[in-house]
Amino acid sequence: MRDQIAARVAGLPEELEGEGRTAAVDVITRSELAKPRHTAVAGFDMTFTPPKSVSTLWALGDRRTQTEVLAAHRKAVQDSLSFFENAALFTRTGAAGCEQRPTRGAVAAAFDHWDSRAGDPNLHTHVVVANKVQSPDGRWLSVDSRALHHAVVTISELYDDLLADELARRLPVSWSWRHRGVRRSPGFELDGTNDGLMAEFSTRTTQIDAAMTATIGDFYAGHGRAPNRIEILRLAPTRHPGNATRQARTPAGRARRGVARTRFRPHRQDARGTDWRRAQPVAC
């Protein structure tokens, strides 16, 4: 920005001096500051998270069950990424990016996580996609982020469906539609999963719900009414419940898979009433 301002100031007539020059510089500065700035990003984080009942099954199941759940999750992630590369990964060329072009695939790294920031079972995978792709002519260009963002919901739904099919193929489980609380959309969960146990393993959700209740209360106090759905989505980022309850991960909090499973063992007694068909958790 400084270079653009300096270049325009240098182009002012030499005879323009005093207050006139000061006013012209001020106009140039204001116009440059008003221009939209596009900041490039290094990459994109795509997070694949199974339903809570699946994380519960993974955390409390026997070793074979845990292996099959993780394999099903990874297969669903892999197939979802293949869809992304084939159907939603593009770059742009030409003036102002007017031409959308296919790519030779994504450059990405995947990281499996086993728990939430609150320490609850939360099997999920972060896939960090680099913001550079190779076009068919060999040039390295930026990802068409608009196409990526437009495909996010489709990729998420595809992962959910692939996971359900893959898990049912590997283990004798079934799924059903279940309500998951106020302000949360219903969704499919594994049949027979103990609701109380899933609630106990949902500390972050409980924290976010409490923060949202407080936020809505503040809005009501200031406006004399509750916010509508659009207003809730437009609440200031600093007041967003997810940020308000977000805790930084410490090195000690990044549990390895074996450490996480050991930490969840005391809850196996609570899972005695849980029936995942023949995919039973180990009883203490």
From TrEMBL:
Domain of life of the native organism: Bacteria
Residue spans of biased composition, Basic residues class: 254-266
Residues annotated as domain TrwC relaxase: 29-241
Record region (Disordered): 238-284
Classification via InterPro entries: TrwC (IPR014862)
Chain intervals with Basic and acidic residues compositional bias: 267-278
Bias kind Low complexity: ranges: 244-253
Name of the molecule in the record: TrwC relaxase domain-containing protein
Organism: Cellulomonas cellasea DSM 20118
